[in-house]
Amino acid sequence: MCSQVLRVRGQAEDSSLQDRGQWASKAEFLLAVAGQIIGLGNVWRFPYLCYKNGGGVFFVPYMLFLVVCGVPLFLLETALGQFTSLGGVGAWMKICPLFAGLGFASQMMILHSCVYYIVILAWAFFYLCSSFQTRLPWSHCNNTWNTGVMHTSHTHITHDPSVSLTDAKAQDWHVLDLSASVDRLGSVNWRLALCLLLVWTVCYFCVWKGVKSTGKVVYVTATFPYLMLLVLLVHGVSLPGAVDGIVYYLKPNHTRLTDPQVWMDAGTQIFFSYGICLGSLTALGSYNKFNNYCYKDCFRLCLLNSSTSFIAGFAIFSVLGFMAQEQGVDIADVVQSGPGLVFIAYPRAVSMMPLPQLWAVCFFLMILMLGLDTQFVSLEALIMSVSDLYPTLIRRCHRREIMLLLVCLVCFLIGLLMVTPGGLYVFQIYDHFSCSGASLLLLSVCQSVAIGWIYSADRFSNNIKAMIGYQPLCIFRLCWRYLTPAMCIGTFGFSLMFWSPLTLANGVTAPVWATAMGWTLTLSSVSLLPLWAIYSLMNTPGTLQQVKKKPLYHVKIHEYRVI
């Protein structure tokens, strides 16, 4: 395997191998990365965290983590892919073979995310189809799952005083036929299964020709959500009660800065929203030309990502403020995070507006496009990383397309568990553990150590200089060596100290067996780091002392890259 990965680029390649591909233009790279990192977390997680953690003061820890961890690691991964012209495992094998487990771990996390992330798109497509009905199914009680909780009259909804708002929210999950217990998985919902199959089919054809097809699709999937976000923002701020919602979103509460949970939320949000340690940034960067200005691209994309999160908060909270005023309740009673915001709070708010079908269609189209490019770009990163490991085996005839089809089929079959009555619980366990904050923090520490200490931050800065003509600011070397690992270790320690059992939909606490399954998902990726290191040491010739003296890196620009 290593011999295949470390084969120098200057050597003659088998003419029967398919071309690896390259971005046709700078715009394709920027749009692909923007589509990967700007996703559902910008819409459903950041605004809620900002409101929950002190409004405007949340930007203090958020900006600190952005500067110390987000931007340095973002540059590290994109520059690593561009410099080595390899993605995932191959890039780390060239730079630092002992830490190639980072590549394996990130690919395992991508595989997990491909299983559960696309289920959100299946739900969104189901809601999108439901939005064309004369009466939105979540706006009235004449459904098979309702118990008369809500009474509707035009655009105003009042609650039965004998039923709590929490009960009303719980019943809204029954649009997805949610069961009452984690133990009751139930049979597959055939409508959701068809939606899942359709979305997987779309993803397959977005990726099946590699970077050539991906580069064309991102022109639509990366730009269309901004159009919908702008439409929803303009409409949202014009609604009565919108100002109250925006005030709740940004109202500063300085006392929250002393709460460790605020800092943990800021750190995990940076890692989630920037796609760090998932291998996608390295894969996308590997399609760049050698002299691409990845340094400036890093700042542009990071600014775009955080700005999108901030603006999305106005679009979301303006509508939630309207909803709270219409119902005569406090906004804290209608604010939710994650799937609850997208599939309960916002749809119910939309149902109170004039022309609710129009706004529902706009919203769920935006959700579909936001999630679609994140999904197929991650899938492309996974397939490309495997192709780089075994180019002579996969990059022939239609083997890549066949492998892609098998991956999609397996992920689809596993995903069927999440379109059952108990599927939402399985989804939340996958979401919380498979690509969890703990996994991302550990991988970030290892990445920083590998580049900052083993490979040398100075040497990596010189590699970037070879590509763009100058070294990045010295603060980047300081972060790679000291600040980034220190912040990640501190956040990881706090997360362990304040760990609590996962709370699932409807307030259900995850049972012990579900938590154990979740930690198994976490270990399935993180454990590959020490396992690969042990395997690498055992297969390196010489005694342990000799192995320690051998350099763990071996990269020369002229060996594999031509400017």
TrEMBL record:
Alphabetical list of Pfam families matching this protein: SNF
Topology in the lipid bilayer: Multi-pass membrane protein
Binding site for Na(+): 35, 42, 273, 305, 370, 373
Gene Ontology MF terms in the entry: gamma-aminobutyric acid:sodium:chloride symporter activity; metal ion binding
Annotated Gene Ontology cellular component terms: cell projection; plasma membrane
Transmembrane segments: 56-76, 82-102, 114-133, 188-207, 227-250, 270-290, 302-324, 358-383, 404-427, 439-457, 478-500, 512-535
PANTHER family: SODIUM/CHLORIDE DEPENDENT TRANSPORTER, SOLUTE CARRIER FAMILY 6 MEMBER 22, TANDEM DUPLICATE 2 ISOFORM X2-RELATED
Recorded family membership: Belongs to the sodium:neurotransmitter symporter (SNF) (TC 2.A.22) family.
Name recorded for this polypeptide: Transporter
